[in-house]
Amino acid sequence: MVRDIDLNADVGEECGDDRALLALVTSANVATGAHAGGGLVLDETVRLAVQAGCAVGAHPSYRDREGFGRVSFAHAVAVDELITDVVEQILLVASACGRNGTPLRHVKAHGGLYNDAASDAAIARALVEAVITAQDRIGPEGLLVVGLSGSLLEVEAQARGVDFVREGFADRAYILTGALASRSQPGAVLTDGDRIRTQALAIAQGLPVETINGAAIVIEADSLCLHGDTPGAVEHARMVRAALEELGVRVLPVGPHP
Questions:
Q1: CATH code, 192
Q2: What number of other Cβ atoms are within 10 A of residue 59's Cβ?
């Protein structure tokens, strides 16, 4: 079914053409400094996102700049410490949003934290708790949680009354369970433009996508991610957006629209 869909990108990670990418997507997940970016980079990225008309979100992670936040620390960090840390990361982006006259709209975890929250109930609960705590400090407008479609994070967000945005990936391969294939697997990161466009269109229409195993599954998604550090990211985003609009899909941030 053709419908509205959001295009999101992870930005502020100092590894891509953020300005060009932000002109093509509708939501920006801004790195907080734990795995990349932060400081002046964070402020500049929020400014660029606002100029481009993108909804701005926080992109927290485990504190792992050396590993770009892609390693799991699920069994190496106390839950209370994780909640406190993620709250602080969210508030950094919220402050930058305030300085640039825009609300913080959503929270999407990065890398290892994203994957852990999708499959580990304790990490999912911690992430949702951090979002609720941060929301209490920011103000009345509810933060959205963006995460893997069909994940434990979706279950936990719904249980706590937090609006959840189901995310699909245009440039990552899936396994049969609907989880993302590990980046250590050959073919886990899609770099061919035609394949990325095909997968994006399939997800947007509720059609099956081919997994890394060769079987097909359906991914239910409200937002499509295009990674800024994937080779050719800007051109891929341009192709995907054009193809969606050609189908009649409205590319818009998640939320109420006229």
A1: 3.20.20.370
A2: 34
| Digit-coded pLDDT (tens) for 79-96 | 999 999 999 999 999 999
Length of the chain: 258
Domain for residue 256, yes or no? no
> Has residue 111 been placed in a domain?
yes
- Under DSSP, is residue 110 helix (H, G, I), strand (E, B) or coil? coil
d(CA 191, CA 224): 16
Q: How many domains does the chain have?
A: 1
Measure Cα distances from 79 to 74, 92, 129, 131 in Å.
9, 20, 10, 14
Domain extent at residue 181: 4-251
pTM of the model: 0.95
150 in Cβ contact with 167 (< 8 Å):
no
Residues with Cβ within 8 Å of 29's Cβ and at least 6 positions away in sequence, in order, are 8, 9, 10, 11, 57, 58, 59, 106, 108, 110, 146
- Residue 189 belongs to a domain: yes
The C-alpha atoms of residue 212 and residue 195 are separated, in whole angstroms, by: 12
User: What are φ and ψ of residue 132, in 5° steps?
Assistant: -65, -45
Cα distance between residue 43 and residue 49, in whole Å: 10
Q: Which amino acid is at 114?
A: Y
What single DSSP character describes residue 180?
Answer: B
Those residues with Cβ within 8 angstroms of residue 201's Cβ, 6 or more apart along the chain or in another chain: 207, 240, 243, 244, 247
- DSSP state for residue 114 in the 8-state scheme: H
Angle at 18 between CA 85 and CA 244, to 5 degrees: 105
Per-residue pLDDT tens digits for 61-78: 999 999 999 999 999 999
> Amino acid letter at 174?
Y
